[in-house]
Amino acid sequence: xxxxxxxxxxxxxxxxxxxxxxxxxxxxxxxxxxxxxxxxxxxxxxxxxxxxxxxxxxxxxxxxxxxxxxxxxxxxxxxxxxxxxxxxxxxxxxxxxxxxxxxxxxxxxxxxxxxxxxxxxxxxxxxxxxxxxxxxxxxxxxxxxxxxxxxxxxxxxxxxxxxxxxxxxxxxxxxxxxxxxxxxxxxxxxxxxxxxxxxxxxxxxxxxxxxxxxxxxxxxxxxxxxxxxxxxxxxxxxxxxxxxxxxxxxxxxxxxxxxxxxxxxxxxxxxxxxxxxxxxxxxxxxxxxxxxxxxxxxxxxxxxxxxxxxxxxxxxxxxxxxxxxxxxxxxxxxxxxxxxxxxxxxxxxxxxxxxxxxxxxxxxxxxxxxxxxxxxxxxxxxxxxxxxxxxxxxxxxxxxxxxxxxxxxxxxxxxxxxxxxxxxxxxxxxxxxxxxxxxxxxxxxxxxxxxxxxxxxxxxxxxxxxxxxxxxxxxxxxxxxxxxxxxxxxxxxxxxxxxxxxxxxxxxxxxxxxxxxxxxxxxxxxxxxxxxxxxxxxxxxxxxxxxxxxxxxxxxxxxxxxxxxxxxxxxxxxxxxxxxxxxxxxxxxxxxxxxxxxxxxxxxxxxxxxxxxxxxxxxxxxxxxxxxxxxxxxxxxxxxxxxxxxxxxxxxxxxxxxxxxxxxxxxxxxxxxxxxxxxxxxxxxxxxxxxxxxxxxxxxxxxxxxxxxxxx
Length: 712
Ligand SMILES: Nc1ncnc2c1ncn2[C@@H]1O[C@H](COP(=O)(O)OP(=O)(O)OP(=O)(O)O)[C@@H](O)[C@H]1O
Hints:
Blueprint: H1 20-40, H2 46-65, H3 70-92, H4 98-113, H5 134-151, E1 156-162, E2 168-174, H6 182-186, H7 189-195, E3 204-208, E4 214-220, E5 244-249, E6 254-257, E7 264-267, H8 274-286, E8 291-297, H9 305-312, E9 323-325, H10 328-348, H11 350-355, E10 369-375, H12 377-382, H13 384-396, E11 402-408, H14 418-422, E12 426-430, H15 436-442, E13 458-463, E14 469-473, H16 478-491, H17 497-508, H18 510-519, H19 567-572, H20 594-598, H21 624-636, E15 640-642, H22 643-650, H23 654-661, E16 673-675, E17 678-680, E18 682-684, H24 685-696, H25 704-708
Parallel strand pairs: 7-11, 7-12, 8-9, 8-10, 10-11
Antiparallel strand pairs: 1-2, 2-4, 3-4, 5-6, 5-14, 12-13, 13-14, 15-18, 16-17
Helix pairs in contact: 1-3, 1-4, 2-3, 3-4, 9-16, 10-13, 10-17, 18-23, 21-24, 22-23
The protein binds adenosine-5'-triphosphate.
């Protein structure tokens, strides 16, 4: 049987006063005892004066140290003067008269009644809830007055917290009762910032507090948004089940959102930083080992190019971006596949959801989320069919983890369908000159203003209808994307086989089309067409496993135009260059003598070229495509040629030309140039010459398909 012990309340014998009554009684008794002892020992009255003076001095010093209120200090000084005066009087005369003790009693009674004035604690706010330090109290009082002046709201500031960055502070406010809501305060944010004379670019954010009646005013005093922040070079694995981060808020909080279920809409005028933000998001999502990034960029694939180059150049085995669509036809394929996957997952993973006791598809590296990032969504929704597909995907893809992130020039219904905006939980408006864009995006009483932002790369983000918060997106440059791409190519997951099956042939053959399309985006925008690349699927074109019998065939895929000619057939019809021309490089089937291999190669195809060797020698033959291309340069008597012009000269398309030259390390120049009044991208003769030299030196192994081109 157990015993229970009950703790008895212990008597408190200490002499510490427990309240104003006991403190007054104790003080009065002590004074009477002192007067009695002084009278018996005939103490000099001067000691009474000395004790009074010491008490007064101590009151002032300790009061200042403890931040005692002025009324507290005056009360204590009055007690010392009254008590000390009485003691001095009794020492000079005698305490043993009725009047003397009556005076002591009246003094004690007065002191007891006025005791609350003597509180040693600093002044509390009106609600008496929070302790505010002197500096904070001043700021708090200012904001209480400001809220009354600007918003006609008699609110109580309960605390002021300075940000660790020193760039602002939070004002914690309790709203008064009587129907005042946080929303009402939001519309005054701009007016409050103006009244507070905040520096340019700084503002007041109205955020929720610990309960519905509590509000946090985030006041920035330094324009941190004006400082460029580069993407932190951290590409370590992450999860889509946690918020992704794309920048910083004014108080240096990470700016980001959870995108497992919510789709994202980003609007901003040209050059406001949308693509940079999408790149931030691509890095952040690419790092997630339970997420696959797909790009849909109808603006020429600029979003994807810095990611895909490392794969096209053969520096990684897997493409960091699982699927990229640079044209309408491919975009439709992609979104159709996304819908098929979402529908399939809905039906097929019921048991998995039951096993995890969740309604939401449990994503993992084996069953990754697919996030489709759409740059220039307005272009996508211009096409009715693609618009319908995107809307359907947005409607059905949430649970099944096929999500959309869309950018557009404006958040208006002409560019983003109303339903699409309404279904979007994470809304971002980038900086721009037009205040009304904020109204279109966040509603007309959001209380935010473009003045709070600091130009390109800054914007407002609203999560699930919350008050928009300003942020600065990380700046990410191509070199850093390349670094990220190299890592992400190795860490990103593969699509689960069931989803890949559901997506069908479009998904299976995407790499072929991507390689062809991105190898030369300047190709005569055959955006509606699709060709298969003559290499194995999962390998970049520069490091293909060379098949024994290369597939020299361009397959017309479903829906593609059937007018695509086989480049090899086309090439056969090309007239060979006239013998002895300036560009008459060694025939690929002839062999060089060792001495010839060491001979300096021509630096310019227009310059005299080495004589054709007299006899076949072991060495590295120059591929026909390179030989003919150099010949075309010589014919044109130019150092640079547009892709289309060069391809025309060779009787093939620019895409085919790019596919043939890229494995030899020859790509188009990064910048467009003007020829015959037209600006386009193209090739430099010196790049072809350098490739020829590298082949001669044995530094490049010419893939079988390229070496045999254009043979049947
Ligand atoms: N976060 C940022 N930090 C610093 N500079 C930025 C940032 N974002 C964008 N910029 C600057 O703004 C320029 C335009 O950015 P970006 O191409 O991302 O804009 P955009 O809205 O996509 O433009 P467009 O619609 O014309 O493609 C960039 O070249 C860069 O100089």
